[in-house]
Write a structure and sequence with these properties.
The chain is an alpha+beta fold. It is built from 4 helices and 6 strands; from the N terminus they run H-E-E-E-E-E-E-H-H-H. Strands 1, 2, 3, 4, 5 and 6 form a 6-stranded antiparallel β-sheet that branches.
């Protein structure tokens, strides 16, 4: 089985069902959940250097303020609507940022990857770290408070919220 096929299994059997259960809608490799005046967005980004048997990817995760979107009336935000785009590693403790299936760039799948074990590792990242943090974002004030820990993006969000 190729690395690309293994990634497809990951998406179909783990990621899509998990995020659907959490209330996320999807289009291609972008998932979003409507929080009223903003969306929480999770986007799987494949890298241009990927090959059939060597796949590296990461997640762009953040919020899209509806009033700052290119089309504020849209109920299907895209990666390009993210007001605050943060990579998955920022949501993880240092001990989870690299490992057997991960380096500083992202997650890695190759022909030797045990996809069941890979999914178990990714489940720790998503179910114990990333999704619990995103679940706390109920209001714009929650977002400003949470993303304030990221100097550039926290300041960017404060400016946009202040402009509205």
């Amino acid at each position: 089985m190729t690395a690309k096929e293994k990634q497809s299994i990951l998406i179909k059997t783990y990621l899509k069902p998990l995020l659907k259960q959490q209330g996320y809608l999807t289009k291609m490799q972008t998932w979003w959940r409507d929080q009223g005046v903003f969306f929480i967005i999770i986007n799987l980004q494949n890298f241009s250097w990927n090959l059939r048997d060597d796949v590296t990817f990461c997640f762009n995760i953040g919020i899209a303020l509806k009033t700052a979107m290119k089309n504020p009336e849209s109920n299907k935000p895209t990666l390009y609507d993210l007001t605050v785009p943060i990579r998955d590693g920022a949501y993880l403790p240092d001990s989870r940022k690299t490992g057997r299936y991960k380096n500083k760039t992202g997650y890695i799948i190759n022909p030797n990857t045990d996809i069941s074990d890979f999914i178990k590792e990714m489940a720790i990242d998503f179910e114990e770290e990333i999704l619990p943090q995103l679940d706390k974002l109920k209001t714009v004030a929650d977002c400003v408070n949470y993303y304030g820990q990221f100097p550039f993006w926290g300041d960017h969000l404060k400016r946009i919220v202040g402009d509205k």
